[in-house]
Amino acid sequence: MQKKQSPDRSYGEKLIRLFAKLMFTGQKHSLTELARSLGCSKQTVLRLVNDITQAWDVTLHDEMRDGRKWVWIDRDKDHAISEPAALLSEAEHRTLQMCRAFTEHLLGQDTFVEMERAVEKSGHHLPAGIDGGGSVFGVVRSGSIDYTRHEDVLRTLLAGMADRRVCEITYRGLNAPAAKTFHIKPLQVFAHHETVYVHARRARSPGRPYKAPKYDPLLALHRFEKVSLTDTPFHRPPGYNFEKVMNQGFGVWMQKRFHVVVDLNGWAAAYARERTWSPGQTVEDQGEGGLRLSFWSTSEPEVMSLVLGFGACARLREPEVLVARVREELALMGQEYGPPQQA
Fold this sequence. Notes:
Elements: H1 7-25, E1 29-30, H2 31-38, H3 42-55, E2 60-65, E3 68-73, H4 90-107, H5 109-122, H6 151-163, E4 165-171, E5 180-192, E6 195-203, E7 218-220, E8 224-233, H7 242-246, E9 258-264, H8 266-273, E10 282-287, E11 290-297, H9 300-309, E12 314-318, H10 320-337
Antiparallel strand pairs: 1-3, 2-3, 4-5, 4-8, 5-6, 6-7, 9-11, 9-12, 10-11
């Protein structure tokens, strides 16, 4: 059974984190933001604020703005902080704030807290009251994965990459009836469509025959059930280049590279014009706002998902084998919905 954390210790940690946040940044923070970052209620934040004012010789200021209560420490009047030798500019600090906001839902709570501390420390030299940008950036989280419980797995994989050590993993693939245990050489962590993946090569498992797979395994971080470091070292593949491996075609599933041609109209055409789908793509105007998009892909399922997602605004032209599969899928979808109901 996991050991429960002492409530007093938890409260003390929140107290220190809140003081550091207010003291290092000198910025105004809303109770809503503080409650979310500390993982507690607004009432607890107010109690923490009260304890800080009583325990330390600082004055916490507050104001109501936009229907929210904001608190801050005026560092110019309270405890001045000496400037480090190298400082980030306000624009650089704002960029860090943006990166933090855009990746919060992918980091997990502990990793996010580390990122938050780094941003706060980097911004402590900004003039008191300057908004470092945290309040103007956000992210829509619908359909996202909570990576908090997978942080230990991520840290172990990162250690394997740093130390060049083979990892033994227990992994359950999508729709797999049971998890499997095998060995990998972890090479890179990457994000794709709100999901964190690990790019790896299969490694030999002791006592088992080894057959090199045709393609590298695609491993989603949240499907790891267990990971441990072994004493077996590995060498990073000579000339390994993640961009050349993973960003040479549309999709993240690694299959044989194939050419795709799709005609788009209406909103789908406008949407497609804004994006790069693969290196070497071409876009031909078809008149009346339509276009013919040609690109390379390594993933048949993702091409089908893309085309079907555009609905009647898309028609797949190539490859023919995938055109046939789209027709089959549409027929099955029609059967699921059945004929229109009579009024």
